[in-house]
Amino acid sequence: MQTYLGIDVGSVTTKMVLLDDNQQVIDSIYLRTQGQPTVVVQQGFKILRDRLDPTVQVAGVGTTGSGRHLAAVVAGADVVKNEITAHAVASSTMVPGVKTILEIGGQDSKIIILREGVAVDFAMNTVCAAGTGSFLDHQATRLNLPIEEFGPTALKSSNPVRIAGRCAVFAESDLIHKQQIGHSLPDLLYGLSEALVRNYLNNVGKGKEILSPIVFQGGVAANQAMKRAFEKELKLPIIIPDHYEVMGAIGAALLAQEEMAFRQAATSFRGFDIAEQTFASSSRECNGCPNACEIVTLKLNGGVISRWGDRCGRWQTTIGRPKPETEQVAS
């Protein structure tokens, strides 16, 4: 079987998806990045290798997410795309006619506006914790509640508490105050969901024309209280697609399929056995000019395979075959 692998490496989670020629999901993996993207990508490869039939062949690989460049070098990717492109491609394929994508991840959130299948506008939030999934995760931990129970518990609310959601620090202070007054846990949790929705719409969605069909994806889409809060605020139905948590990886796989059909060449994929190899990365500051760029070097089994991070291109290189360090220095 010929398949296409999509890898989405985020700051909190790493997702992998295998699609067949008919763009159907064969397998998917959702792992915590835990600050070790290379190790987690290798772990994902090991899981996929153990699950898959040996006859399954990877014909193309795409990467996306904040760690897409690192993942591309580790995996041997054929195409590297940003999250906006990957999510737009996945949603327009899985939900034809979609006009608005609401995406909330662990450390950032984004909105993508599509018209006739083309992304015409977008916005991202990468600085405000109160507009991301980590906000709900942190508060659930503080309330001694498993995050999986957040949504079901919040949906039991009969009188949601209004919590200030403009800032994570103020929101937590306000939540503590409301707790001390004696509000119930379901009312507090649904109030937090509404606060995150207000923050999202006032910051990420500000000035955007939000039209239906609306797709809600990302890890936070698992929270049904968030879906209800969005529907209440927008007064429009919200669609949560199948595989909502790995849509970025699906988009990367679809882009890989498109790239390989156009290129008509063999994939650069290093193979699932890369899980057994040893990667090491390091960085240093280049003093060649006042920019003082941070140069990142990635080694495979002791040989340099890639460098990046400079603005001028002096150090940038990606090497298909690992070379001994002495050969690299000489070059």
How would you describe this structure to a colleague?
The chain is of the alpha/beta class and 331 residues long. It has 3 domains: 2-88 and 248-276, ATPase, nucleotide binding domain (Nucleotidyltransferase, domain 5); 96-240, ATPase, nucleotide binding domain (Nucleotidyltransferase, domain 5), CATH 3.30.420.40; 279-330, no CATH class. Helix content is 35%, strand content 26%. It has 10 helices and 14 strands. The chain has helices at 37-51, 68-75, 83-94, 133-142, 150-154, 168-181, 185-203, 224-234, 247-263, 325-330; strands at residues 2-9, 13-20, 25-32, 57-64, 79-80, 100-104, 109-115, 118-125, 214-217, 238-239, 279-285, 294-300, 303-308, 317-323. It has a 5-stranded mixed β-sheet with strand order 3-2-1-4-5. Strands 8-7-6-9-10 form a 5-stranded mixed β-sheet. A 4-stranded antiparallel β-sheet has the order 11-12-13-14. Helix 1 crosses helix 2, helix 3 (83-94) crosses helix 9 and helix 7 packs across helix 8. It is globular. 42% of the residues are buried.
List the helices and strands and how they pair.
Blueprint: E1 2-9, E2 13-20, E3 25-32, H1 37-51, E4 57-64, H2 68-75, E5 79-80, H3 83-94, E6 100-104, E7 109-115, E8 118-125, H4 133-142, H5 150-154, H6 168-181, H7 185-203, E9 214-217, H8 224-234, E10 238-239, H9 247-263, E11 279-285, E12 294-300, E13 303-308, E14 317-323, H10 325-330
Parallel strand pairs: 1-4, 4-5, 6-9, 9-10
Antiparallel strand pairs: 1-2, 2-3, 6-7, 7-8, 11-12, 12-13, 13-14
Task: List descriptors.
Nucleotidyltransferase, domain 5; 331 residues; 14 strands; single chain; five-stranded mixed β-sheet; 35% helix; disordered C terminus; alpha/beta
